[in-house]
Amino acid sequence: MVKKxxxxxxxxxxxxCFLFLGTTIRWTTTSxxxxxxxxxxxxxxxxxxxxxxxxxxxxxxxxFLYALIFVLFSYLLTFVLGKGWELESIKRPGYPSLTDLDIxxxxxxxxxxxxxxxxxxxxxxxxxxxxxxxxGAIINGCFALYERYxxxxxxxxxxxxxxxxxxxxxxxxxxxxxxxxxxxxxxEQIFFAIASLFAFSASFSTAARSAMISLLIAFCILQIVFxxxxxxxxxxxxxxxGGMLIVFSxxxxxxxxxxxxxLQQIQVDIDQxxxxxxxxxxxxxxxxxxxxxxxxxxxxVYGMSxxxxxxxxxxxxxxxxxxxxxxxxxxxxxxxxxxxxxxxAKRGIVGLLxxxxxxxxxxxxxxxxxxxxxxxxxxxxICGFLTILYFIFINSFTGEPWDSMVDTPMIILLCSxxxxxxxxxxxxxxxxxxxxx
Length: 437
Description:
The protein has 17 helices and no strands. With 437 residues, the chain is mostly helical.
């Protein structure tokens, strides 16, 4: 049956290839999400036959889908009850602004993508996509080294932004190390080891502290998993990590600017904040969190839409005691540089519960049977599990990847991709067990 849809399988596989090859471009993730949605809906309507559909979706995957729907519900609840449509568009005066529906739209597409990935029978080319992960890692590394040492940029950003470049490069580095550990071919091992070093250099060249720390934590957890599952891979991965230490030393030895990785700046920012100067990276975050807490107290259940924030801007500034805002400052509507505080401020308790449920179901889904599975299934379960953990760690405390125009589609597409790979492995094992020699 899969051969009947060879053209569809190849086209969809190529879309995911472009996803990994184009992480240096800002519009890549959203464009790929839209195209994947169109492809999946096309398969559903134009190939509507019984053999195309999966009869039963595993329970943990069903719960994950329900959690994703709950996240979308929390956004729409705030928009409707917060009267989000009352905000006037800046570009088109007299018309309502639909800015609060930007992120929900991505979740809306994501829900259908995940559902159709689970419900429809098709296969993706794992080998080609894996190679594109490695190539994408090398591309990011080349961009970073060019911007750092040719253009003299202390924090590289490509065409996507510093935080997004850091996230994409860290994930490509993580996946490359995992593929390196599972590869049996010497050529593939060399390729993925080199790719991981390039991606590592890109991630650390952004000097995004949250991404660097999250990547290191993900590596620690990966090594713990390998220690209990496969000691050979545990030892093998140290080779790649050793190479990263060398890259780290070289970046440190040949800096661009005084504080290469902005580590000393942490203490400077805290000292400045203590001296009543909030105009620093960390100090401004503290003030934004105060604003978010005030917004939660004003509307604790479903949070505040942008229209509500616009009406009560001065009240938020005054009650929070924010020292980075002046009267009628539109900046209050912006992000709060913490996923937890962002959810509480703009979607209230309902939004936070939806976010936490999404985290838990995601980890449960990829962690299911992790102690017993082997081979390719283990590889993709680790990829999915560490992807979610990466975004939960420091990223969610100092940023808002789950409310991002770039990162949110990436999260949903990666979850869909690794779910499909896991299900492909499960189906192949079942077909093999029913095959009689």
